[in-house]
Amino acid sequence: MPIFGGGQTCTNTGDVTITKAVKNPITNQFSHDLGTDVPFNPQDTVQFEITVTNTSGSTIDRIIVQDMLPPLVTFVSGQGQFDPQKKIVSLEVDKLASNHSKKIAITGNIVPTEQIPFAGGSTGCVSNKAIAITPNGKMTSDSSQFCVQKPVSSPLQNPPKNLKNTPPTGASEVGELFLLIALVVGYYLIKTTKLLNF
């Protein structure tokens, strides 16, 4: 089973902790990891939740948070600024008091079927990483994992060849018949007139 975006990592150092979760599409509850028993399908909506907690004894003035969207996911909405080239959502958490937390919501979509690189009928898992950086330069990170199921492609339905179009029927045929009769009658009248003149 392919895994994209690296494996799970969890590093909490310094005065801040960060946790990354993904919403279970069946229970609607956020979970750190979702296995192959709860796969997403192409173009499904995926909701992420990042929780940043100040574990120090004082207020932290500024925390930089970055969420690195995994492969197979496109950005839809969320707090902060999205860089489409790097696929990173960036924002700042200001004045986070001691022992307080800040929750950040981000929404994405699974890419269409044709953009999923593995074979149809199989499941691949992706890792989604978030980091927090404090003013003293210490970085804290966490990753969550979920899986995407690619459906089996249906064979192309090619239309049968050498099919002839059915000729049109109805009023047009009746009109053509009357036109033919009129031509025959007209020709007959002309011939009859000429014979009488002689």
Give average pLDDT, whole number.
Answer: 83
Instruction: State the helicity in percent bands.
Output: 10-25%
User: Gap between N and C termini, in Å?
Assistant: 100 Å
Largest sheet: 7 strands, mixed
Task: Report the CATH architecture.
Answer: Sandwich
CA gyration radius, whole angstroms? 35 Å
The CATH class designation is: Mainly Beta
DSSP, total strands:
12
Count of DSSP-assigned helices = 1
> Which spans of ≥5 residues are poorly predicted at pLDDT below 50?
6-10
Structural class: mainly beta
Tell me the series of helices and strands, N- to C-terminal.
Answer: EEEEEEEEEEEEH
Describe the structure.
The chain is mostly beta strands and 198 residues long. It has a single domain (3-149), classed as Sandwich (Immunoglobulin-like). It has one helix at 171-197; strands at residues 3-4, 10-11, 16-23, 30-31, 45-54, 60-68, 73-78, 81-83, 88-96, 101-110, 123-133, 139-149. The longest helix is centred in the last third of the chain and has 27 residues, at 171-197.
Secondary-structure map with pairings?
Blueprint: E1 3-4, E2 10-11, E3 16-23, E4 30-31, E5 45-54, E6 60-68, E7 73-78, E8 81-83, E9 88-96, E10 101-110, E11 123-133, E12 139-149, H1 171-197
Summary keywords:
about 200 residues, mainly beta, Immunoglobulin-like, seven-stranded mixed β-sheet, five-stranded antiparallel β-sheet, 1 helix, elongated
